[in-house]
Every structure is written in C-alpha cells, then in structure tokens.
Amino acid sequence: MKAQFKNYLSLTKKEWNGMVVLLVLIAVVLVAPYIYQWYHKDNTINVTAFNADIAALDEANPPLSKDFKSPKTVLYKFNPNTISTDDWQRLGLTAKQAAIIKNYTTKGGRFRKAEDLQKIYGLTKVDYARLAPFIIIPEEKAKPNIVVELNSADSAKLTSIDGIGGAFAKRIIYYRERLGGFISKEQLKEVFGIDDLKYDEIKGQVKVDANRIRKININAITFDKLRLMPYLNYKQVNAIIEYRNQHGDYASIDDLQNIAIIDADILRKIGPYLIYK
What we know:
Helix content is 47%, strand content 3%. The protein has 13 helices and four strands.
C-alpha cells in the first residue's frame, strides 16, 4: 500500500522539469507589473500649467453669455428680382432657400407678381405669408411682342426671350440638334432645367415650325447617328438596327411595333421624325 502511494506521487525527470518551467512562468507574470511600474513612472501633472492652458482656451473661445441673442430677422420692402443671397437670409430664409431663389433669378427667372414666389421649391407657406406684404415689384416697361421660332433661332435670338439666358439658350440648341428639331413647343420641358414654372414663363414668346425638323431615314441611319435621338436608349437603338439587318428595310412605323422593347409611347414620340426610303 505504501509502495503504491509512493509510486503515485513520484515524478519523472521530464515532469519535474516541466513543473519548474511552469513555476518560473508564474513568477514572471506576477513580478512583471512591478518591474514595468519601476521603469515607467507616471509623469506628475503640473496643475499650475494645466490651469493656465484652460484659462487661455476659455479666453480664445468665450462661452455665450446668458444675454447673447441671435440676430433678429429684419423685414423690409424688397424686390425679389434684385436682392442678394445675403439679403434673403436677413429676411429670415435659410442659406439653402436663398441659394435656390438666387439660382432661379441668375438663370433668367423673373418674379412678375408677389404670388410667383410661392412656386419656388423649398419656400414654405409660412415663409411666403411673412414676406408677401413686403414684396415690391416695379412695373416693367412693355416690351415688343416678339415670338421666337425655336427651330431656326440662334443663341442670340433665344436670349431675347424674357427668362432665357445664355445657359438655357445653349441647352435648347444642343437638345434641338440631338432631336432633329422641335415638333411642339411643349418639348422645351424636356430640356434640362426647364420645369413647368419656367415653361409657363416663356411659352407665350415662342413658336414652332414643324416643317423645319430634320427627318431620319430609318433604313439608312447608322447606330452611332441613331444613338443621338433622345427618346431612344442604347438597347432600343441596337434592337432597331438588328431588326433591320435581319428582316430588311422598314416599310412603315407599323414594322417597328414588332420590336418588343419599343412601346407605343416611344413610337408616338419618334414617329414624326422617321422616313422610310
């Protein structure tokens, strides 16, 4: 019995060496924090210097006093066609609202009556009700009744339209060239930046001679040329060319109805521009 107990507690040399290594590791882990603190002592905070830095910071950025008040909105008589972005903000509008209005007038937009201000995107009914009594729009001198034909007008002629500046004139000409000309003046609303408000402003000053449009020979036009047509996307242009290659020339617009991705609305738009030679 005693011999068995002794054999149970006895250690081999390999086990003894392992136990020694384990004890050494435990000792190192326990002593390591003290050694670290010995070689890395915390720096003592200089309270005087710290307080001086805080005081300097407060002096550079003084807190708002209880008596501080944000600038009050000042309402005064103004012409919405001429005042600056800063003036709009003094009237109580946000920087974003002021920028939208200024962008509108810079591009040729005009307020002809106080009610026109209500059409500006982002302007609330409360804003308008507050500003309306102070709006003054001087009566404009009557201008000659000039009506510009859209398909023949150059940039100079287009800028004679009240409400159309140089930027809009360039966009109209660029779109007209891609389209082949305007069939109706309502197509102006397809030009980038001409929304319903702008269109209502200029529609009485323009007309369209549909006989001036440039026709497209659908049986001869190349992919790259047809790609310019604003009403057709890449896949639709490709489908038109491929159908022609596979089935021969188009006889009428009815043949285009056989192309699945060309719907009735697209046909209605491109139909007046097509010829079948």
